[in-house]
Every structure is written in structure tokens, then in C-alpha cells.
Amino acid sequence: MNFLRRRLSDSSFVANLPNGYMMDLQRPDNSTSSPVSPAMERKHPQPPQPSHSSSTGTSIFSSISSAMKQTTQAAAGLIDHSASPTPPAAQKPKILLVIDDVHTDWAKYFQGKKVNGEFDIRVEQAEFSELNLAAYVTGGCMVDMQVMRNGTKVVSRSFKPDFVLIRQHAYSMALGEDFRSLIIGLQYGGIHTVNSLYSIYNFCSKPWVFSQLIKIFNSLGPEKFPLVEQTFFPSHKQMLTTPNFPVVVKLGHAHAGMGKVKVENQHDFRDMASIVAMAKTYATTEPFIDSKYDIRIQKIGSNYKAYMRTSISGNWKANTGSAMLEQIAMTERYRLWADACAEMFGGLDICAVKAVHSKDGKDYIIEVMDSSMPLIGEHVEEDRQLIADLVVSKMSQLVITAGSTPSPLRPWPPQVQPASMKSQTGPQLGQLSQPRPPPQGGPRQPQGSQPPRTNAPPQQRLSPQGQQPQSPQSTSPQQQRSPGSPQQVRSATGSSPVQASKAGVFPPQQPRPPAQGRAPSQPSPTETSKQQATPHPHLNKSQSLTNTFSISESSQRGNANEDEAKAETIRNLRKSFASLFSD
Length: 583
What we know:
Layout: H1 2-7, H2 11-15, H3 23-26, H4 38-43, H5 52-76, E1 94-99, E2 114-115, E3 119-126, E4 131-136, E5 140-149, E6 152-159, E7 163-166, H6 180-188, E8 192-194, H7 197-202, H8 206-220, E9 231-233, E10 247-251, E11 260-263, H9 266-279, E12 283-287, E13 291-300, E14 303-311, E15 323-328, H10 332-341, E16 350-358, E17 363-369, H11 380-404, H12 419-432, H13 477-481, H14 486-493, H15 497-502, H16 525-533, H17 541-558, H18 562-580
Parallel strand pairs: 1-3, 1-7, 7-8
Antiparallel strand pairs: 2-3, 4-5, 5-6, 9-12, 10-11, 10-12, 13-14, 13-16, 14-15, 16-17
Helix pairs in contact: 17-18
């Protein structure tokens, strides 16, 4: 402090102050600075350039004064932090994670496309087996991708995807192909996908999907929606017999013709039951249909295609061995099948319905596939482009809409409370919390000495000896602030206001002395006024600044007149700086 006083005592410091600011410091003092005559000021209209030491002191003083001014204005509620303009952030590209095998390069299908015409798309492609993730409640989902090619790590990085396109099966009966935990992690992190994560998780069990087909069958009827008759066995124990042979037995959740066996008689059926017991899974049976060809109706967004596949090798599985594939006309019957299946599990953006056309001319729907369906035919490139356009459309709808909502980590803006609400909530807050201590230099109220809540006048609540009353159950702030006049306090206690303050009674509109005049007791108001004018020399001046801010904060909270509170704050600051930089 002595260093600051020596550095700030130069005349250039006082001359650089604005007019009318800190009048106490601009008054000449022989002990600290030499006065400058008006003649010298007229002769030298421009003050000399300050030295390095004086400029350093001026910068320190300006930083201190600006910090104090901001603190005072923030306490008075004059600064609105939300009004400060924030610079626009650089638009980062949206990250699209495509879960598919390495045979399809999805990056070229999203080249040049933008989300909402503003954000570029960065494509990250990997298989389920190459992914790991961690999901958070408010932090989204962090995906760790490690791509291996021929035993060599090609790509290893972590990122937060904005959207995911799933083109692989999330669960299969094969060993190590259960990736349902990754689907749960993406759902946990709130990531949007095509198809939806809800539908993809439901498609991890084929009998569960077939139960939805049964609902459609019961709704539309066998004429519009012909469904194959299927029987479900939770385990091998129920697999005793079946009414008709031959039958097709399907074990668990398998794809691409795996786990499907044609059974001709009862003995083979019992052997299959033992295989189901070893697999420890469920099984389904359905009558064998001597098919002429298979039918596949696919739906990608609003685009429909129908294909016919005929086996050439003579295998009863049309998807095994050699087959001939050709595109057929899209009829209203096929469109009804695709639209009905696309409504399950909240909606399927990409789906395909598989049916069998028997030699007797009947159709039987046997299965429905989701976004993991393989693309077939001569229009594979067109279908991939349709999927890319669908993903960009979904990203524009879901990602931008989700980003416009307030994040849980971002605080909500403070709401302005009406004055009527403030008056109602004020006494409730005062009852719940302890009473605020009086300003420094004023009488201090002991803990547990609040006046009881009675209808009697304040002077009747005090004992003649000025003893402390018992702690009340509840006391309103109005009773603490204005219990009575100073004359009533003196007549009730017969002593000085100090004894009245010990009894829990405070005289209203008592002048607030500065923190330098704080003392353990005050014998009379006359000495209190003297202490306001003369600061105590033994107290720390840095502590006086803190006490002054406490006084200004408490006065601004308690006083309804904002102008008076501002004026009082400026007066306290002037007195504080006057005591800080004077001898």
C-alpha cells in the first residue's frame, strides 16, 4: 500500500482524473502532492507524459476502480450479462457414422451434400465389430473406432456422431455377433439413426417381429395380407410333434438362410429338437411351401421396387445357390404390404417384405427386413443414392431441431420476477433463513434473541432489566426492522440504545456508520456520528473496502429506491478511496 501511495501521489495522476470524479483525491494536499496553479495549467494545456512508474500506477488504479465499479453495478443489478453479443461459432461439419461392411464406400454418396444447405457432412464408416462407445446423460455419445484391415490397424479415432446409418444386423446367432449393447449405447446418448434405434432393437428377434405381422394379419385379413402359418416354441421341451410334414424349422435369430432346416418326418423332427436343446434357444416351424419364385418388395423412403427371384440350382432356398433375379411391376397389393409393415415399431424408413409364390398361385408372406436388408438387382447404385438422400433429409429434420433446444449444461436465462411476487416471497424467505446481520458499525443482534411474535406493543416484550427474551418459533422481517421508535426503546429499557439492541429491538432509520468506526459497543448516537467522520486508525484499510461493499450490498437490497442506493454506494466508495490513499 505504501508503494501505491508513493506511485499515485504524482500530480499527473490527479490531473488525468475526469472532471468531478473523486473530489476528495483531486483536492490538493501539501503532504502528498504539490498543487498546480491555474497559470501553469493555462501555460501548459497538455499535461506531461507520465513516466513508466506513474503509468503503471495509473493502470493499476484504473483496473482496481473498474473492477470495483463492475462489482457494485453487478450487486445493484445494473449489468446484464446475457446482453453481451457472442461471436458466431464456426460451423463444424456434421458427423455421419455409417455401420456397414467395407465393400461399399458410402462417403462418395454423401459428397457435396449439405445438411439444411449449411453444414457439410463428414462420413465415418466402420463395422459393428470395429466400434466401441461411451454414452453420457448430458454429453451425448463418444464413439471409439478402430478399423482393422488384414490384421493391421488402419484407422483409430474417437468422435461424437450426429447421425448414424445402420446397414448391418445388430444381432445374430453366430459367435461374437451380438452388438445389442452398442444399440443401447446409441439410444442412451440420444443419437438419431435410420432406421430408428427402437425398431432396430426390436428387430433383434425374428419371432418378435413376426408377432407384429400377426397383428397386421388380424387387422387386414388373409385376403389382403396373406401370412404363413407359423408355430413358436420357446425351447426344445415343447417340440414333441407337428401336425403336417414336411416343415421348415428355424433356429433362433439367423439370417441369409442360416439355421433353416427342412424336416420330412417325425423322426427328423425329434432330431431337430435335440439340436435346439444344444443351441439353448427358441425355434419356429412353418409348413414347407413348394414355391415357384420368391417375391421381395422394398421401400426406401417413398420409393418402391418389387423383385422376383427364381432358383436355378433347384434348391428349396431361393437365396442359396444360383438364382435368377428380375424386377417386376409394383402393384397396389405389394404396395399395401410394404406400407403396412413400414408402420411397425413407430415407423420404418427402410424396409423390405419377403413372400413366397407357390406353384398353386398363392402368395405367403414369410418375413420383413429393416434397414440392414441387402440391396439387390440392377439398381443398387440408385438405391444407395436414395438412402443417402433419405439420411440427409432426416438429418435436416432431427439434428438441427435437436440442436436448437437448450442444452442441459447451458443455464436457463433468469426470469424477471414481478414486484407483487417479490413482496409475497420476501417474508417467506426471511422465515426460512436466519436474519441477516446488521451493517458493520451498527448494533449486533445475538443469536436466538429475536423478539417473540405477539400482539403486545414492543415495549411490553422487554424485561425491565434488559434481559434477552426466549427464542421465538417464527419472526417476520417487518417485526425485526421496525419494532418501535427510539423513545419507546429508552422508556422501556431505561438505558442506552446499546442495551436496547441487546434486548433484540432496533431503532428505525439509524444512520449507517462506515466500517472504520466499528466498535464492540456504542455508548450514544453522538459518538456514532463522530465515528462516521473520523475513521479508526488501527483497522486494516483493505478490510474497510470489503466492509464498504457489504454495506452497499445490504443497503441496495433493503432499500426500494434504486437512485438513493446508487448515490450511497458512490459516497461510500469516495470515502473508502479517500481513506486508502491519504495519510
